[in-house]
Amino acid sequence: MKNKKPIISIIGDYFVGKTAIIESYLGYGFKINSITTIGIDIYPLKVKIKKKIYELSIKDTAGQEQYHSLSLNSVRNCQGIILVYSRNDFNSFHNIITNWINSINDLINLKKTPCILVENKNDLELDEQIKEEEINNIINEYNLTFIRSSAKENKNIKEIFEKITQLILEKKQKEEEKRKNTKYKMVDKENDIIEVVEEYNNIGSFSIASSKHINENEKNSC
């Protein structure tokens, strides 16, 4: 049976650079006038960590209000989330807190889901910036990893996808260790023996390819 690629949803308001982050990683370059995402676009993506190539499926979601429900539904079966706001748009940061996170938490337990908060467009020089205290509050409350990036300058773009992959791998390892340590008993109602049952989150299995088989185009995207 073929392994399923872990699904990662990238979420945030429109024009914060979600698509630009993906395209920058894939080596497509930066487009000043990029086309706004409508609905959900899916990108196959490969990440190289310690000489292993991990295959991911990235859901690039629309940030417009009319697609809000569709974008949120993308997190139901995902194994990781990337939340993006723009450095030059305080409302996009505020919406991460008041809109996206609260809505996501209604569907899944965000604190138990590998998640990265990304401040994009970090190439811009601004007089007024989002306060560090506000950023730290949301990071600590929801156990998020924080990365500042610039899709335009290709700054910390690779780190975003490497980190979310590492977080998913770490969670998968912890779940497997927990499963091995779980003791099961036979159900015997007459002797009052209770069966121990434990549910696990749905964690996708990585498809791993040897780095020896990566062609030149794939190398450029890793």
Concise structural overview:
This protein is α/β, with parallel strands linked by helices and about 220 residues long.
Using the alpha-carbon principal axes, give the shape: globular
How would you state the average pLDDT, rounded? 81
Number of strands: 7
Taking the alpha carbons of the first and last residues, their distance comes to: 26 Å
CATH architecture: 3-Layer(aba) Sandwich
Keywords:
7 strands, alpha/beta, disordered C terminus, 32% helix, 222 residues
Give the arrangement of secondary structure elements:
Elements lengths: L6 E5 L6 H8 L14 E10 L2 E10 L6 H6 L6 E7 L3 H16 L9 E6 L11 H11 L2 E4 L8 H25 L26 E3 L5 H5 L2
Parallel strand pairs: 1-3, 1-4, 4-5, 5-6
Antiparallel strand pairs: 2-3, 3-7
What can you tell me about this protein's structure?
- The chain is of the alpha/beta class.
- It contains six helices and seven strands.
- It has helices spanning 18-25, 68-73, 90-105, 132-142, 157-181, 216-220; strands at residues 7-11, 40-49, 52-61, 80-86, 115-120, 145-148, 208-210.
- Strands 1, 2, 3, 4, 5, 6 and 7 form a seven-stranded mixed sheet that branches.
